[in-house]
Amino acid sequence: GHAQSSSVNLAEALLAQGLAKVVDWSASMLPAAVSAKLRATERAAKEQRLRMWTGWTPPTSSTAHLETNDTKYVGTVVEVVSGDTIVVLPPGKNAQERRISLSSLRAPRVGNARAGRQGEPYSAASKDFLRKTVIGKKVSVEVDYVRALPEGPTGPATSLTMATVSLPDKSSGEQHNVAVMLLVRGLATVQRHRADDERSSQYEDLQAAEAKAIQGKKGVHSGKDEPVGREPNDASQNANKAKQMLPHLQRGGRMRAVVEAVLSSNRLKLTIPAQSTVLAFSLNGVRAPAPARRGGGGDAPRDAEPYGDEALRSVRHRVLQREVDVEVVTCDKSGAFLGSMYIGNDPSRMEDLSVMLVRDGLARVMRRDAPPELKDAESAAKSSKLRIWESYVEPTEEELAAAAAGGGSQNGAGNSAGGAGARPDTRETFDAMVTEIEERGAFWAQRASNQATIERIQGALKEAGASAAPPASRFAVGTMVMCQFSSDKQWYRASVESAAKDGSSYDVFYVDFGNRESVTADRMRPLTPDLLSTPPLAQHFQLAYVRVPSYNADGGSEAVELLGEVLFQGMCSFRVEETEKGEGKGPRLSATIHKVTVYPKSDAGEASSSSSSSSSAPVSAQAALLQAGVALLHPRGSRPGPHRDEAVRSLKGHEDEARKAHRGIFRYGDPGSDDEL
């Protein structure tokens, strides 16, 4: 308490004469205004060196070395690290992000999965409240002090910038201390300081806010465990789980999500709160240049592609920890969902992130059937020679004609010579739907001509599956069965590839779609004779004239991801360049593998025809992979002939473009022989 004689406050009088000093533990019990006045009185006595402060030497400010604009500024919060630490981007074209910790505050420590450390109670609530409060908003930063951290087992010596961060009230203009907002909700505690320690410039306000939370038994002061929410279903690192969830997310349409991490300019980690789902996500139909990679964790270091780091910063500053809308289209082999992402605070005026990146010259369109806004954005970026298009040169009419007759023609290069005596092009062409993508440019597809048969078989399977009894005996390897697919619970024809010793589970191959799954015996039934008579409807294909890396090789996973973006758009046009024997066993595989050229189609009913128009000339899957630097030309893998030579000539320009721009496998120079892939 404090004693008062007549109109004189004895505590203030003693402090003013240098006969007493403030004691933190008792001062914290006083009202904030009273405590602040006592500290100001003590500070005045110190500066005058009165009595007990005769030999007092003021401590050196830890911020003395900082420039004025480094101690007080307004910036945008781009990341919330924990309940007491944020990352702020000051204004300016070349401004660097600054990591700021809230002065005199301690939030519950967040967990670290890699270190095997559990988060303290209320750590998630503290971080999430701070994220919702400040992410993407302009805040005022006033640096109070800098704390040096010595070298330790967790890292080298470093320093923490401790600051008071305030959020302006839009209506009144008043500044609200973010630390006070946390404390009053019981989501943090005030750090106790020694007498001469530097502290928050609003330390008394922090103490008062904490006292309110203690009195109200809020948060960490409640004496209760933090409420545990539903454990999210994490499919971000499980390709099988991702594929099982795909139909459910596709039916969900446009969903609200939170961007938890920006792994690269092309890959993000999202949480969908309504579905309690965590997933990996990539923008569909566009590709941004890859940023630099430091290496570690089994990954080799990698230099950035041109403008790769800028693309990463752009995505990070726009979406990290923000609430966005996403719409899932499909899923690639690695388990990443492909789709569209819309950002903005006004639901009626949200923008497509893909369009924004393409418009800024930080991504290129990879889909032939891309929507008009994407094509227009890319055309504008090319015309302005923005970033990745800085060296872009409009193709000549001769080059456009050659592209339309060769790598850009769906009817092949064999007729490009034209004129009398030109041999007719006898290569088979047809439309098909790609159903499964494998490594090394291989995939499975269903011919459009078989769609009626597929529908008939699926109808028969639905009826048979509902009435068939569970198996009375085990299934042998190679047996054709009907299986209930885990994702949509529908029945499909499959071939048994392997079985558990006790017969409780089997590995099966879905012969009409080309994908595999492990299933339990209760999801299998014998196949009726009428369903056995139709041969497998999924055919095995491989891209002709190119060599694609294996999935674990450099560029392999990117190739699978890109091929999915190109081919999983609907019906595609196929042209068979040659056919060779496969290595399939039994009904699982066709005995042949068709090496093909594939063109995505914007409409399943569109006829396969060549075009000399530059605006409608299609781009083959081979051209897309070569242009991205995730494949090499491989003419030796095909039989010699005029078709091969013309196709290789037309595709070489795409490979040369990737080599010149140091994309993908060319980022360290020419990889040499394609046999090394």
> Distance between the terminal alpha carbons, to the nearest Å?
79 Å
Strand order of the largest sheet: 3-4-5-8-7
Helix proportion range: 25-40%
Separate helix tally: 17
Q: Total number of β-strand segments?
A: 31
Please outline the major beta sheet.
5 strands, mixed, barrel
Mean pLDDT: 82
Kindly provide the radius of gyration, computed on alpha-carbon positions and rounded to a whole number of angstroms: 33 Å
Structural class: alpha+beta
Q: Please state roughly what percent of the residues sit in beta strands, choosing from under 5%, 5-15%, 15-25%, 25-35%, 35-45% or over 45%.
A: 25-35%
Low-confidence stretches: 403-422, 583-590, 603-617
The backbone outline, from C-alpha atoms, is elongated
Polypeptide structure, described:
- This protein is α+β, with helices and mostly antiparallel strands and 677 residues long.
- Helix 10 (353-359) runs parallel beside helix 11 (372-384).
- Mean pLDDT is 82; it is low at 403-422, 583-590 and 603-617.
Provide a brief overview of the structure.
By secondary structure, the chain is an alpha+beta fold. The protein is built from 17 helices and 31 strands.
What's the arrangement of secondary structure elements?
Blueprint: E1 4-5, E2 8-9, H1 10-16, H2 24-27, H3 32-47, H4 68-71, E3 72-82, E4 85-89, E5 98-102, E6 105-106, H5 123-134, E7 138-149, E8 158-168, E9 175-177, H6 178-184, E10 189-190, H7 203-215, E11 233-234, H8 239-251, E12 254-264, E13 267-272, E14 277-283, E15 286-287, H9 308-319, E16 323-331, E17 337-343, E18 351-352, H10 353-359, E19 364-365, H11 372-384, H12 397-405, E20 429-437, E21 442-447, H13 451-467, E22 480-484, E23 491-499, E24 505-510, E25 516-520, E26 524-526, H14 529-532, E27 538-543, E28 546-547, H15 556-567, E29 571-581, E30 592-600, H16 621-628, E31 632-633, H17 642-661
Parallel strand pairs: 5-8, 11-14, 14-17, 27-30
Antiparallel strand pairs: 1-2, 3-4, 3-7, 4-5, 6-10, 7-8, 8-9, 12-13, 12-16, 13-14, 15-19, 16-17, 17-18, 20-21, 20-29, 21-27, 22-23, 22-26, 23-24, 24-25, 28-31, 29-30
Helix pairs in contact: 1-3, 3-7, 6-7, 10-11, 16-17
